[in-house]
Amino acid sequence: MTLRVYLSGEIHTDWREQITSGAADLDVSFDSPVTDHDASDDCGVAILGAEDNKYWHDHKGAMVNAIRTRKGIEDADIVVVRFGDQYKQWNAAFDAGMASALGKSLIILHGPQHAHPLKEVDAAALAVAEEPSQVVEILRYVLTGKLPG
Amino acid sequence: MTLRVYLSGEIHTDWREQITSGAADLDVSFDSPVTDHDASDDCGVAILGAEDNKYWHDHKGAMVNAIRTRKGIEDADIVVVRFGDQYKQWNAAFDAGMASALGKSLIILHGPQHAHPLKEVDAAALAVAEEPSQVVEILRYVLTGKLPG
Amino acid sequence: MTLRVYLSGEIHTDWREQITSGAADLDVSFDSPVTDHDASDDCGVAILGAEDNKYWHDHKGAMVNAIRTRKGIEDADIVVVRFGDQYKQWNAAFDAGMASALGKSLIILHGPQHAHPLKEVDAAALAVAEEPSQVVEILRYVLTGKLPG
Amino acid sequence: MTLRVYLSGEIHTDWREQITSGAADLDVSFDSPVTDHDASDDCGVAILGAEDNKYWHDHKGAMVNAIRTRKGIEDADIVVVRFGDQYKQWNAAFDAGMASALGKSLIILHGPQHAHPLKEVDAAALAVAEEPSQVVEILRYVLTGKLPG
Amino acid sequence: MTLRVYLSGEIHTDWREQITSGAADLDVSFDSPVTDHDASDDCGVAILGAEDNKYWHDHKGAMVNAIRTRKGIEDADIVVVRFGDQYKQWNAAFDAGMASALGKSLIILHGPQHAHPLKEVDAAALAVAEEPSQVVEILRYVLTGKLPG
Amino acid sequence: MTLRVYLSGEIHTDWREQITSGAADLDVSFDSPVTDHDASDDCGVAILGAEDNKYWHDHKGAMVNAIRTRKGIEDADIVVVRFGDQYKQWNAAFDAGMASALGKSLIILHGPQHAHPLKEVDAAALAVAEEPSQVVEILRYVLTGKLPG
Amino acid sequence: MTLRVYLSGEIHTDWREQITSGAADLDVSFDSPVTDHDASDDCGVAILGAEDNKYWHDHKGAMVNAIRTRKGIEDADIVVVRFGDQYKQWNAAFDAGMASALGKSLIILHGPQHAHPLKEVDAAALAVAEEPSQVVEILRYVLTGKLPG
Amino acid sequence: MTLRVYLSGEIHTDWREQITSGAADLDVSFDSPVTDHDASDDCGVAILGAEDNKYWHDHKGAMVNAIRTRKGIEDADIVVVRFGDQYKQWNAAFDAGMASALGKSLIILHGPQHAHPLKEVDAAALAVAEEPSQVVEILRYVLTGKLPG
């Protein structure tokens, strides 16, 4: 069994690296969005031409990023969505909704302070974790049946 | 042509009433989540039994609410999602993601101050409006071909 | 919103009547399997001809019953599956698996003594209840937003 | 032609080993649930944190196990479900229902004493066998056209 | 429960009338192909213009008939396919294959002399009957739980 | 049998009226795009606010029109697409491609001068007609089995 | 581009060998049913135990063969169905119906004497050929753009 | 992440070569229709036999080409559709409609003079480009996160 995992959400901490390095010995492939914030915001106009209006500037970028995001989510067996402490992160919750409707196994990763506002998102998940290391342990258990410790 | 519309998101202003009363003369049926905040939070334990742990209290409620939410979104032709100024509103973005993956026509309703953090959600929409009256005008145009004014 | 509900599982108590009479004032339609045990066992041979071999006797009946069961589950918004104290009830668990794979909202109804062996089935449900009256309360809340008491 | 086979159900005898060793010369890959009973029961709390309430202890484990089970069933061409003599085995019947709704080729494996209570499950199958060796012979015939003896 | 039934296959005996009149008291709606053999053969050229080549004459008619056939099969809960004693009847078997792939409940109706060449078609069915009256009895049982006699 | 028909394409002649009046005695419901050219071009900015850039002016309108177009095509049993002598009509061919991928019965309506450039579109159709009256005759035949003359 | 092709239908001439050897230089993989007539008829009872009743003898074999047939058709890009001069060949037409409903590209192979009774089947095909060599030429053209001669 | 890209539309300039050579260092595989105009027009009759009637000549060719086109579009993650200055190009718009209904990421490539008549097609796209080099830059960004310059 090989698992394809998409790592969605927060881009300001190293949680993706913790998971990919922790799972380096497992039969897992990882995809994720472009995590360079500036490139992600400007990709539309940088490639397809400038826009005077900030709304369409953002729109063109969001559309180009959607090519990668959709591919990553549609190909995944498991979608992990991380909610951090900053920003609105509505795109993370949007990805979780897409993944749920597509029947993906969903793992939500957040601190306990976000449990109440994320209750509907968590309710669609097969696991709710607080630490990236727990996601690694889930992947290890799913693939090998081994538990930590 | 009859349209089924699901009104998702913010529950603290009267935007739903503005839309349903504005569209009262149109061939539209509306569904929405339970908008009584307390009932929505407590429905799981009120019906299925108390939980000591707040997480499971919330979880049982979110699961029961999902019965209504999923039915409403799956039956809809159009899903309108309103983002207000308060709270995290991750459930609204989650509904938008589900609706998008299910191929629903999506209308997003929010003030201009939220345009940047909602750019990925807006990019999945067929219309982005600021006022409930604009949603009514869209419904009127889609059903009758009449424009405002 | 109108709900279609399929009532699967145990056929030796009056739980279906408790639900349908309790929900008589709600906009719900109910379907269920044939609950006459003898008719259900013998329908295949009674209509399509006798079989010497008990296995094929049972098989012909199970196939004819599947016409009704599949229609009921596929048309339903909500599938309620009741596990009682007698018999193997593998057909109830099979119906729950079908309903889950078809994306139906699943409500499981059983006594606490069955919680451990039903944990995988319960994990696919949006609500786990012990009493038929709780199912009625869920239907009432989903349709009207009213909680008991 | 390569076949992917998921082996669901009873975990207390060596039937999986009989099939995988018997089919070792065939172009088949096998998946199965975690068959270590204790690990399977405790995986949720071992990774995601302890629960006071046995119901939620079980629930967290069942959810984590579902990541593997769903992946295995969804990727399979053939799902074999084995019913033994002990326990309720509702999860086995649930897997069979999922597999059937997903259009998988279903092979059910059980002793003759279970034929009557399994008649609805058997009716959804393309083969009903009593011995693991018969499953191997089916795989061999499907891949090579060779019959036993 | 209302059943939609599509009656496919042989057009030279009154089996459809036997079923529809026998089921007149049941909540069933019936569809069927155009059973006027000449109209069915010539509909394409009669409406869309003559063809010199017999192959294209037939082709245009078969395409127009497919509009009705596909609608009838796609809308049906149950597809009944009757094989008679004359002609190749490959279109009947084709309809059965379509119905099976679409997940319809399939009832096959034929005399015992055709059992061997129809074994693959029968294997996809939930009931195999010899007489139209048996189809009526199945519909009655599925809808009411009543057995004959 | 009731047919839902979507009439896509050319908006500068009265072909829709010819079909709807010709089929007035049949059990058919018709949908179509907004055929007021100016309203169709300007609906986006008229409702959602002006755009300086003509591209985004057009884009907002096309998105709002898509709400109606998608609903009409998705609900249809039959999609009729008319190609006239003027304009590029790429939206008509786009609708035909959508309808084909969604498995709708496709009828293409065009003069003989367009047969070569429409060969790929015609190849996806169940009927290719030159006159609106032929579409009426197809609908009549599909519903009643009656041929013209 | 790699093509997966399933070769269904007549098993008494060497048409499959003509196609597979003719296409030996192309990037195509072929699957087919078991073409050993006796093995195909008896596989059910040979593996799963004898049946007194010929109907169930046939039934068990047809079910086991369906494991291979469904896998072959579901995995195919192109399904070729050959109709010969002998036997009823209803299973061939059934396979064509399944392939059509699953959206496969269908190529039908038969002599001109069968054109009229196969008109509905041919109408679902993208090519109708008389000779196996024409199927090879289609595969060559689809993969390389090269025409014969 | 590997991307499969289908290049549909205009066949009279070297835009495909510009994209495939520009993306030669990326993990992308490309498919396209047969771009030899004469072979594409005549493939049906060259392989399957001559037709007196030009309509059926074209039809047979369009059907054979559809085998390749459908496979290319269905397997693609991204469908690029190029509109040039000549011909009706309805097949290009038809491919775009199919790709959109199948949920593919759509990139439309055309000069500014075609923006108005392509507004409905562009509205279904995630990117609208004028130059093949922009398509290469999108592919590079989607796969590597690198922007030009």
From TrEMBL, chains A, B, C, D, E, F, G, H:
Q: Which domain of life is it from?
A: Bacteria
* Descriptive protein name: YtoQ family protein
Native species:
Roseobacter ponti
